[in-house]
Design goal:
Rossmann fold, binds S-adenosylmethionine, alpha/beta, 13 helices
């Protein structure tokens, strides 16, 4: 019979089991995304073979993707281990919503394909008011029905992003938390309750949810142009304990806040959806509202300059999803734009399919 001490020697530690659970969780979402993509593209080929096809990825590119995926989930686990955010965040997934809305994604596909085939990129239902928005915004981004301007679109958005990124969307969003924590060390003399953080183009509030977990006492603010996405964000964020973030409908080109108001500003997956000159305008606004000594963190798609080996993926994305400004984005010099606004001490990082720019406003 084995003694208790020898059983303990072979039993994995709680830490190892936790990590295995997390890896299994991420892999299951990855397989789900792969199965969805394989089946939906097979159906698309049968239903509408004339539609645009993605460039098939060769073994080398698939291996690179795999390595980047593994690196991302390793960093995600390590940052939780270091206390940058609670481990519970690693398993925070809106399962009920996912299973509830998954059939709707399939039911919406024929309309999306029709729009893609007919090159109808600004096709909105009669009840959607588009006049109050800039024309670059009234697009069926990703061929989404009613773009960002309906409650149905807001309900499907997070699941669509998860399917696109094989379940890594939050893991990529979480990579802004370590640089934000580091940047906020400049305000160590300020009480945590007086720290103000703004998430620009907060969408359905996923990033604000992560910020709330990592900065439980800070005052959080979120802005977006879409009332439907803000309604969804309000619903998601109300589930959390702690103070509700203040949400405002606003164009990021003219943020409705005082100069030097925020200790830190973030923006996730916004810049690739803006024309070049609007990117600059938004960066200028983020500079204006950041306090001297504060930090601005951008998370968005990888670019050619940092990931030339991922070119086929960057070519496929706007081919398969309506992303009118993406090609320009992939070669845009964001460091130059940040410097032009006044930011200094700018660093860039890459995790999986995302790039991060960490910029400081001189004190
Ligand atoms: C790809 S989504 C990203 C949403 C969210 N940050 C996330 O991590 O999922 C882009 C978001 O930017 C918002 N948006 C686009 N242009 C904007 C602008 N000029 N001002 C404010 N929000 C804008 C859209 O409404 C949408 O919610």
């Amino acid at each position: 019979m084995q003694s208790t001490s020898s059983i303990n020697e072979v039993l994995p530690t709680p830490e190892t089991l936790g990590k295995l659970a997390y890896q299994t969780f991420q892999w299951s979402k990855n397989y789900f995304g792969l199965a969805h993509k394989a089946l939906s593209s097979r159906l698309l080929n049968l239903a509408s073979p004339m539609n645009q096809q993605a460039i098939p990825l060769d073994a080398e590119h698939l291996q690179r993707l795999q390595q980047r995926f593994d690196q991302l989930i390793e960093v995600d686990w390590q940052d939780a281990q270091q206390g940058i955010y609670p481990h519970s965040l690693l398993f925070d997934n809106p399962w009920t919503e996912f299973f509830r809305y998954y059939p709707e994604i399939w039911l919406d596909l024929p309309q999306m394909w029709e729009r893609a085939k007919g090159k109808k990129y600004q096709d909105f239902s009669a009840d959607v008011l588009t006049e109050d928005y800039p024309s670059y915004y009234t697009q069926n981004f990703h061929h989404q029905t009613n773009g960002y301007l309906s409650d149905t679109s807001a309900n499907l958005y997070d699941l669509q992003v998860e399917l696109l990124f094989g379940g890594t969307a939050d893991a990529m969003r979480r990579r802004i938390l370590a640089p934000l924590k580091q940047g906020l060390q400049a305000f160590n003399d300020v009480s945590p309750r007086q720290i103000r953080l703004l998430d620009v183009a907060c969408g359905t509030g996923r990033t604000l949810r992560l910020l709330r977990a990592a900065f439980p006492h800070a005052s959080l603010f979120g802005t977006d142009l879409s009332p439907a996405y803000l309604r969804k964000a309000n619903q998601l964020l109300s589930e959390n304990r702690g103070e509700l973030p203040q949400l405002l409908q606003a164009n990021a080109e003219s943020l409705p806040y005082l100069d030097n108001y925020f200790h830190a500003v973030s923006s996730v997956f916004l810049f690739h959806e803006l024309p070049g000159e609007v990117r600059q305008q938004v960066i200028d606004q983020c500079f204006r509202v950041t306090k001297p000594g504060g930090v601005f963190v951008i998370c968005d798609s990888i670019q050619v300059s940092d990931s030339p080996e991922m070119m086929p993926m960057m070519e496929n994305f706007p081919q398969m999803f309506h992303e009118p400004y993406y090609r320009h984005y992939t070669t845009d010099n964001l460091v130059e734009r940040l410097e032009k606004a006044g930011f200094r001490n700018i660093s860039t990082h890459v995790h999986f399919m995302s790039k991060y720019l960490v910029a400081h406003k001189p004190a």
